[in-house]
Specification:
The complex is a heterodimer of chains A (333) and B (262).
Chain A lengths: L2 H34 L6 H17 L5 H8 L12 H22 L9 H23 L16 H8 L15 H23 L1 H11 L1 H6 L4 H27 L8 H12 L4 H21 L12 H12 L14
Chain B lengths: L9 E10 L2 E11 L4 E5 L6 H9 L6 E6 L2 E2 L5 H7 L1 E3 L12 H8 L8 H6 L3 H20 L14 H14 L4 E5 L7 H17 L3 E5 L3 H7 L2 E6 L2 E6 L1 H5 L2 H8 L6
Parallel strand pairs in B: 3-8, 3-9, 6-7, 7-8
Antiparallel strand pairs in B: 1-2, 1-4, 4-5, 9-10
Helix pairs in contact in B: 3-6, 5-6
Classes of the chains: A mainly alpha (333), B alpha/beta (262).
């Protein structure tokens, strides 16, 4: 194979894996949107918050230490060596479940039967609150997150691919980050588990029922409030997974909450109500923006990755507003 | 078996329900006896659906008591009412449109499912046994309603009459003591209506389910119900057997129209 083709393959592979990272965030949006019709603006911040908490537990940070120190003139910051990654992850999951319960108790419960725009506004409020709360609790500095997932370029893959180029060609092999490969494996596992869960368990069936029709769900004996707590817990868990992957890749920083915006074009492509759609949408965006940057980027000054996804989404809105896998809503007249 | 009037399944006492200034129901009382088919009739806006929503827990009345199965009911959410043993269908069909007929009926059995998430996750042992058992019950209902051919069709694609039938099936799946049907024959053609009448009567006899239904088709009401309660402007106008109600002067004036013979 000529080096040009190999380069394009490399761009494709990296695009696919970048897309998986977008899909991880988009997945959380889809779960909540399906079950409650709420577009949860706070999903990105939830990922940030989960990652912050995880690092905090891992490194043994004392929550609210800055606040405590300012109020009482003390100098606390850590309570010891921290704990191992597994324990920290379990504790973070528990905290996200507690968070889901609080959201239901303090926000959703009081907004039942309100228009979707009102619930959307509530999640915007929630996003700002959580961003501030996360800052207050764990501090605003950029943190490194390492839960033991391997990262860095794969030398093995570089060696393998170097052989593919013709003898004597100016080619040094493909670069692939091992972390991205792991993100792919984890995302596939996550989607498989979520799909099996929703297809074959009683709670999964109840989730689908609620997603379909609230009124009917109530009459067969499903408690909406219980289901909402479960859904937000699962979305919290997905946020944690996304937070771990993004945090391991680029550090836990507050700009992480902005990746939520990249999930929006993913959702427009894939459809707001489809789990496979979130994955496929993410892959298309990932591959699309990397290929565009590689082929067209140099001609127009580069940095196309910042806007390509949104333009693609705009085109989609014109021709297929329900997304690739979304439900087409036909109102009978 | 004749219904026993001393031990009604459901009793509503002096129910009043207002929305802002509008009185939807005013001091309405009646009872539903075990094993009977009870019809609630009245002109549009008489409060029939409101009454059903009160029984079902969607609305909570400002005044009055609801006794179910010999117990005074507290303020209850619809899903709690469902667990108590009251199932219902809707005037404008509320099905899980994206799910298949089979899944809709299985969803109807959710309150009957006991095994917890742990077993569900393992998908072995009790969960599997339970799933098989529930499937058998659901298949029985599918046979009964003659909807075998649409078992795996997403219900959103079905024609209106069949959707109504699936909704009845889902309500049956819960094996409730009381079944509330809100206009089960609305929008159906003659043949579909006859089928539905037969199903309602068969459910009443075969499943031994007490039924309360709202219906506009007087022929249907007079044919299949044991007793009829008539509402008008939120108040109870008459209560009794179809014959008694048909000859009640107040009912004739308010609803059935002035008889041509008089």
């Amino acid at each position: 194979m000529s080096p040009e083709i190999l380069n394009i393959i490399e761009v494709l592979l990296n695009g696919l894996m970048a897309g998986i990272m977008y899909s991880l965030v988009a997945l959380g949006f889809v779960l909540i949107f399906k079950a409650s019709g709420i577009f949860n603006y706070a999903q990105g911040v939830m990922a940030l918050f989960a990652a912050l908490t995880l690092v905090g537990f891992q490194t043994g940070q004392i929550p609210f230490s800055h606040l405590i120190n300012v109020m009482f003139g003390t100098d606390y910051h850590h309570w010891g060596e921290g704990m191992n990654s597994f324990l920290a992850i379990v504790l973070t999951i528990l905290l996200m479940i507690l968070f889901a319960w609080l959201v239901e108790k303090l926000v959703l419960k009081h907004l039942v039967n309100q228009a979707p725009i009102i619930l959307f506004m509530a999640t915007i409020g929630l996003a700002f609150f959580m961003e501030g709360f996360g800052d207050l609790m764990w501090g605003a500095n950029i943190k490194t997150l390492d839960v033991g997932i391997p990262s860095g370029g794969s030398f093995w893959w570089e060696d393998v691919t170097r052989e593919w180029a013709p003898e004597g060609a100016d080619y040094y092999g493909m670069y692939i980050d091992v972390l991205d490969v792991w993100a792919t494996v984890i995302a596939v596992a996550l989607v498989t588990i979520l799909t099996l869960f929703s297809q074959y368990t009683k709670i999964g069936r109840a989730l689908r029922a609620v997603a379909d029709d609230h009124q009917a769900a109530l009459t067969v004996g499903i408690s909406l409030r219980v289901i909402w707590v479960i859904v937000w817990s699962i979305a919290g868990f997905v946020a944690l997974v996304a937070g771990i992957m993004w945090g391991s890749k680029s550090g836990v920083q507050f700009s992480l909450s902005l990746i939520a915006l990249k999930a929006l074009p993913v959702l427009i492509l894939g459809g707001f109500t489809s789990i496979p759609g979130a994955i496929i949408g993410g892959l298309i965006i990932g591959v699309g923006e990397k290929l565009f940057e590689y082929s067209v980027g140099p001609m127009i000054g580069g940095a196309t990755e910042n806007w390509f996804a949104y333009v693609l989404a705009l085109f989609f809105l014109m021709f297929r507003p329900q997304g690739l896998f979304g439900e087409k809503i036909i109102e009978r007249v | 078996m004749l219904p026993d009037p001393s031990n009604p399944l459901l009793e509503v006492k002096d129910i009043s329900l207002t929305f802002g200034g509008v009185e939807a129901l005013k001091d309405v009382s009646f009872e539903i006896l075990r094993g009977e088919v009870r019809a609630i009739i009245g002109p549009n806006g008489a409060g029939k659906s409101s009454m059903l929503n009160v029984i079902n827990g969607f609305y909570y009345p400002q005044k009055g008591e609801i006794w179910f199965d010999g117990q005074l009911r507290d303020h209850m959410k619809p899903h709690d009412v469902a667990r108590l043993g009251i199932a219902r269908t809707f005037q404008n069909i509320a099905l899980f449109k994206g799910m298949t007929t089979l899944d809709n009926l299985m969803a109807g059995r959710i309150i009957r499912m006991k095994t917890n998430l742990f077993w569900q996750a393992l998908w072995k042992g009790p969960a599997q046994r339970e799933e098989v058992e529930h499937r058998e019950r659901v298949e029985h209902i599918i046979d009964f309603l003659k909807i075998q051919s649409i078992r795996n069709t997403p219900v959103g694609r079905l024609p209106y009459g069949l959707q109504k039938r699936v909704e009845l099936g889902r309500a049956l799946a819960a094996e409730s003591k009381l079944l509330l049907l809100d206009e089960p024959m609305a929008g159906m053609n003659l043949e579909e209506k006859e089928d539905m009448c037969r199903f309602v009567l068969d459910v009443n006899q075969e499943f031994d389910t007490t039924i309360a239904l709202i219906e506009h088709d007087m022929g249907v009401v007079m044919d299949i119900s044991d007793r009829v309660v008539v509402l008008d402007y939120g108040k109870k106008l008459a209560d009794g057997t179809p014959d008694a109600v048909r000859n009640d002067q107040a009912v004739i004036d308010a609803y059935l129209g002035v008889s041509s013979e008089s």
